[in-house]
Design brief:
By secondary structure, the protein is of the alpha/beta class. It folds into two domains: 273 residues, Alpha-Beta Barrel (TIM Barrel); 69 residues. Helix content is 46%, strand content 15%. Strands 1-2-3-5-8-9-10-12 form an eight-stranded parallel barrel, surrounded by seven helices. It has a two-stranded antiparallel ribbon with strand order 6-7. α10 packs antiparallel against α11. The model has no long low-confidence stretch (mean pLDDT 95). Keywords: Oxidoreductase. This is LLM class F420-dependent oxidoreductase. InterPro entries: F420-G6PD/mer, F420_OxRdatse_Rv3520c_pred, Luciferase-like_dom, Luciferase-like_sf.
């Protein structure tokens, strides 16, 4: 199992702190560093900056928002980042949510699965330097009633195949990820609740004839972002993660459409998820955080002293995780750097040569 570091986005940490974490992960032999975007700092600019200041670590977008860019622009960006970094780029994509897609980007959220499928098809064709012609429900290239013509990318990425990852939560999204992507970017991943989730991905892999007959998941990268709190006080460590959990369960989306709330419900926390959402949407954010069950946090994070984390980290590899995304939760950058070092010691096999999708 490889190790990755999830840096999030500016606002949660300073740019200098994020760079320090990426540089230390690079020194420790972490496989990749992932950068997010919402409606603040963008992933692309940050990855360029980190790539210029590191040597070996992979550079992943977690995620580049599909409604924010045309598929051709995404292909141009991926090829440029891959070229500038010497073949280190991993393209993570996601449709975001209806509030960001429609409220920030002005793009209708309807039919996210069909849009994602078409988007990825166009990106792959462009990165393969094919002359792009596409007639879909959501994208048409070139437009049929104007002077545009089919074009191909004028530069080539360094990698022959730039890995594409999808952020997915629901069963159909997971099946699509297995069918068309090289990896899955997961959030709130619980090894004990992963059977049906990975089963959905495997269904997509089988439908596309990917993997092997015995193991459809072969060659597919499973990358959950896992909050890590190194502490002797497990309860206090859970409290440090509670606000983050409440934000997603309670506030990421509307009352009717919150994929993370639905995920918590599928894990058996229906009543608790409803309570967290009720409090969060009422503006009672502290109470919402307090209402997140410790059991949910402990199932989806690594919390405790190194010995406890060591005893629990193997659950991820046993569940099929191939790259463990470490999200260090601590007040200071020194503590977060220490968390990266602790995880490097607890997962010693991470630096071994492991094939990348």
């Amino acid at each position: 199992m490889r190790l990755a570091v999830n840096l999030g986005y500016m606002g949660l940490s300073s740019s200098q702190d994020m760079l320090a974490l990426a540089a230390e992960a690079d020194r420790l032999g972490y496989d990749s560093a992932w950068v997010a975007e919402a409606y603040g700092s963008d992933a692309v600019t940050f990855l360029s900056w980190i790539g210029a200041r590191t040597e070996h670590i992979g550079l992943g977008s977690a995620v580049m928002q599909i409604p924010a860019r045309t598929p051709a622009m995404t292909a141009m960006t991926a090829a440029t980042l891959d070229h500038l970094s010497g073949g280190r780029f991993r393209l993570g994509l996601g449709v975001s949510g209806p509030q960001v897609s429609e409220g920030w980007h002005g793009v209708r959220f309807g039919k996210p699965l069909a849009r994602t499928r078409e988007y990825v098809e166009i990106v792959r064709r462009a990165l393969a330097r094919e002359r792009v012609e596409y007639a879909g429900e959501h994208f048409t290239l070139p437009l049929p009633d104007g002077p545009g013509k089919a074009l191909k990318l004028t530069i080539a990425p360094t990698q022959k195949h730039v890995p594409v990852y999808l952020a997915a939560v629901g069963p159909k999204n997971l099946e699509l990820a297995g069918e068309i992507a090289d990896g899955w970017l997961a959030i709130f991943f619980s090894p004990e609740h992963s059977g049906d989730i990975l089963g959905s991905i495997a269904t997509g892999r089988r439908a596309a004839g990917k993997g092997t007959e015995d193991d459809p998941m072969a060659g597919f990268d499973i990358v959950p972002t896992v909050p890590v709190v190194v502490t002797d006080d497990v309860e206090a460590g859970a409290q440090a993660v509670a606000a983050y959990s409440a934000l997603y369960i309670g506030g990421m989306g509307s009352r009717e459409k919150n994929f993370y709330n639905q995920l918590a419900c599928r894990m058996g926390f229906e009543e608790e998820a409803a309570r967290v959402q009720e409090l969060f949407l009422a503006g009672q954010h502290r109470d919402a955080a307090a209402a997140v069950p410790v059991e949910f946090i402990d199932a989806t994070a690594l919390i405790g002293p190194p010995e406890r984390i060591r005893s629990r980290v193997g659950r991820y590899a046993e569940a099929g995780v191939t790259t463990l995304g470490v999200s260090p939760f601590a007040l200071t950058v020194e503590e977060r750097l220490s968390t990266l070092r602790v995880m490097s010691e607890l997962v010693p096999s991470h630096a071994e040569e492991v094939p990348t999708p």
